[in-house]
C-alpha cells in the first residue's frame, strides 16, 4: 500500500465554493491522490509570500484554482477586489507553480466574450468582455499562461450545484414563496452542473496526458434562462407561474452577454470526455436538493 507521502498532491483553492465543494465530494474516489483543500481562511491567494511558501512546503503535482470573485454586479463598484482575486491572485498562483513544475487548472468563464455571436463559441474566438467581472477573469487567464506554461484554463458557464448560491437554488426558493416570477428569455447558453465539471477535471488529472491550453466546458444543450427556470419548475414539482421577459425589463449593474453557448468539441476530442445533457444533470441536482 502506498504511503501518503508517495501520493501526488493536488491543491484545491476556493474549496468552499460550488466547484470546490463538489471536488471534495468526489475526492474519495481518487485515492491515488492526496488532496489539500483550501478556503480563503486557510490561504489568502492574493498574498504572494504566503502562496509561494505554501507551495514550496507542500510541493503539489497539481493545483486546481477555484478561487474567484463571482459577484458580477458588485464587481462594477468593487473593481479592486474583483481584480485582486480574479487576476492578481491567479498571477501569484501561476508564479508559485512554475518553478516547481506544478500543473495548473484554472477556472474561467463565458463572460470573457461579448455575447454577440450566433454560433457556439470556440476557444480561439475573439474575446471582448462587456463587464468588469469578465475583464478581471480574462486578465487572470492571461496571467496564468504568462507565468506558468503548464496551465489549462477551463471556461464554463451558468454554474450551479447543491452547494452555495446559484440560479437553481434561487429559483426553487422563489417558486416556493411566490405565485409567479419573471425570468429572462433572450439570453442563450447552457448551464454547468459543478459536479460534472469536477468529475471532468479529476478525469483529466488522472489521465496520461496534460495538454496546456483553453478548453470550454458546460453541459450539452442550448437554452435560455426562462427554459432553465421552466425545467426547474417541472423537476421540482412547483406550480409557480413563470413569465418570460426580455433583458431590457430586468436591468442590472453589469451587462450580461446575450449569447454564451460554448463549443465543447476541443475538450471532448482531446480528453475523450463525455458530457451530460443539461436536463439530465439538472434532474440529478434537484433530486439531491430535495432529499
Structural notes for this entry:
The protein starts with 7 loop residues before the first strand and ends with a helix. The mean pLDDT is 96. The strands form four sheets. It has a six-stranded parallel β-sheet with strand order 2-1-3-4-5-10, sandwiched between helices. The chain has helices at residues 18-26, 48-58, 79-97, 132-147, 167-177, 194-205, 225-236, 265-271, 278-289, and strands at 8-13, 33-38, 62-65, 103-109, 151-156, 159-160, 180-184, 188-189, 192-193, 213-217, 223-224, 241-245. The chain has nine helices and twelve strands. It has a single domain (4-166, 192-219, 260-275), classed as NAD(P)-binding Rossmann-like Domain (Rossmann fold), CATH 3.40.50.720. β1 (8-13), α1 and β2 form a beta-alpha-beta unit. It is of the alpha/beta class. It is globular.
Beta strands, count: 12
Structural class: alpha/beta
- The chain-level mean pLDDT equals 96
Count of helical regions:
9
- Report low-confidence residues grouped into runs of 5 or more: none
Fill in the CATH topology.
Rossmann fold
The separation of the N and C termini measures 37 Å
CATH architecture: 3-Layer(aba) Sandwich
Query: In the residues, how many domains can be counted?
Result: 1
Spatial extent as radius of gyration: 19 Å
Helix content: 25-40%
Strand content: 15-25%
Shape label: globular
Query: CATH H-level name... which superfamily?
Result: NAD(P)-binding Rossmann-like Domain
Query: Tell me, what is the CATH class?
Result: Alpha Beta
H-E string? EHEHEHEHEEHEEEHEEHEHH
Strand adjacency order, main sheet: 2-1-3-4-5-10
User: Biggest sheet, in brief?
Assistant: 6 strands, parallel
Amino acid at each position: 500500500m502506498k504511503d501518503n507521502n508517495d501520493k501526488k498532491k493536488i491543491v484545491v483553492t476556493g474549496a468552499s465554493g460550488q466547484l470546490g465543494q463538489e471536488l471534495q465530494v468526489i475526492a474519495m474516489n481518487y485515492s491515488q491522490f492526496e488532496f489539500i483543500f483550501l478556503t480563503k481562511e486557510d490561504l489568502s491567494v492574493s498574498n504572494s509570500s504566503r502562496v509561494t511558501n505554501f507551495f514550496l512546503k507542500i510541493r503539489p503535482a497539481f493545483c486546481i484554482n477555484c478561487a474567484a470573485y463571482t459577484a458580477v454586479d458588485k464587481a462594477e463598484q468593487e473593481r479592486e477586489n474583483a481584480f485582486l482575486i480574479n487576476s492578481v491572485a491567479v498571477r501569484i498562483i501561476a508564479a508559485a507553480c512554475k518553478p516547481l513544475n506544478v500543473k495548473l487548472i484554472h477556472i474561467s468563464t463565458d463572460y470573457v466574450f461579448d455575447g454577440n455571436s450566433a454560433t457556439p463559441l470556440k476557444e480561439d474566438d475573439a474575446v471582448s468582455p462587456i463587464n468588469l467581472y469578465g475583464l478581471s477573469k480574462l486578465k487572470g487567464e492571461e496571467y496564468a499562461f504568462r507565468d506558468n506554461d503548464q496551465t489549462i484554463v477551463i471556461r464554463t458557464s451558468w454554474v450551479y450545484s447543491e452547494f452555495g448560491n446559484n440560479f437553481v437554488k434561487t429559483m426553487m426558493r422563489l417558486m416556493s414563496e411566490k405565485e409567479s416570477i419573471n425570468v429572462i428569455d433572450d439570453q442563450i447558453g447552457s448551464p454547468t452542473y459543478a459536479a460534472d465539471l469536477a468529475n471532468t477535471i479529476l478525469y483529466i488529472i488522472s489521465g496520461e496526458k496534460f495538454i496546456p491550453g483553453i478548453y470550454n466546458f458546460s453541459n450539452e444543450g442550448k437554452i435560455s434562462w426562462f427554459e432553465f427556470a421552466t425545467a426547474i419548475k417541472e423537476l421540482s414539482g412547483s406550480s409557480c407561474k413563470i413569465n418570460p421577459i426580455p433583458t431590457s425589463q430586468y436591468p442590472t449593474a453589469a451587462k450580461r452577454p446575450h449569447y454564451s453557448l460554448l463549443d465543447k468539441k476541443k475538450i471532448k476530442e482531446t480528453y475523450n470526455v463525455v458530457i451530460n445533457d443539461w436536463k439530465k444533470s439538472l434532474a440529478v441536482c434537484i433530486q439531491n436538493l430535495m432529499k
